Amino acid sequence: MKRIKYHAVVDSGLLDIFQTGIQRWYRQEGRDLPWRHTTDPYHILVSEILLHQTTVKTVEPVYRRFLERFPTVTDLANASLTEVKTITDPLGYKIRGQWLHQIAQAVVSQFSGVFPRTLEELLSLPGIGRYTAGAIMSFAFGYDAPILDTNVNRLIGRYFAIDYKDSSAETKHQLWSIAEAIVPSGQAREFNNALMDMGAMICTARKPKCLICPVAVGCAMLAEQPTRAAEERVQYRLRTE
DNA sequence: AAAGCGGGGTC
DNA sequence: GACCCAGCTTT
């Protein structure tokens, strides 16, 4: 079965500015966060689920508490749902405690305690969508997998002149396609972290800090002719797979 | 495509 | 009071 899809081809000059600027900035200004000291997929999973629509500052203490109480995926699988929820419910979106519990039990029973290493398998687990699957693939396993969270969505949308608030399938596909196209080979772990820090610290939702932005020179938001910018920045070409 | 889930923070 | 936060599932 042959499927036809479009994939993004980004202007090489703009891509170089973007990748180089962001990586250099990240090595200097990037945040030091607890889940960046590990590549354990279980730890990455816990951090990502807790971070759904929840600020880093709020999650940090809960993340530490959670892993202190449930150090391994087996510990979590054997725990009671009630105790799990005691830790996670105060964050809101209370279904997340159940998701983590179910995922842990699935990893133990269906995957023999070995964390799945493919997007397809990860996506089959409750509470793991396209973003979280990409995060585990890149942060835990180091694969060249793209991510698109609210930070990256906004950053890429602004830089490449895409209406990132539009929820249509076409727009979402374009943004994912760009997120995939810009990952530097073999460097997804660092690059994806850099993208999120840029979105969280520079390209913020309100009052973005364009004056100190390392990629402002290439950004469509600051371009002189924004209406023409889009088609000159990214092309979409057919791909058969 | 849009609603629902949610506590906590900012402006 | 409106908007935002390392999203996902259901309708």
UniProtKB/TrEMBL annotation:
Keywords for this protein: 4Fe-4S, DNA damage, DNA repair, Glycosidase, Hydrolase, Iron, Iron-sulfur, Metal-binding
Pfam families assigned: EndIII_4Fe-2S (PF10576), HHH (PF00633), HhH-GPD (PF00730)
Taxonomic superkingdom: Bacteria
A GO molecular-function annotation: metal ion binding
Ranges of residues in domain HhH-GPD: 50-201
One of the GO BP terms on file: base-excision repair
Transmembrane segments: none
Acetylation keyword on record: no
Catalytic activity of the protein: Hydrolyzes free adenine bases from 7,8-dihydro-8-oxoguanine:adenine mismatched double-stranded DNA, leaving an apurinic site
Enzyme class of the recorded protein, top EC level: hydrolase
EC code: 3.2.2.31
Cofactor(s) listed in the protein's UniProt record: [4Fe-4S] cluster
UniProt xrefs under CDD domains: ENDO3c
Similarity annotation: Belongs to the Nth/MutY family.
Protein name: Adenine DNA glycosylase
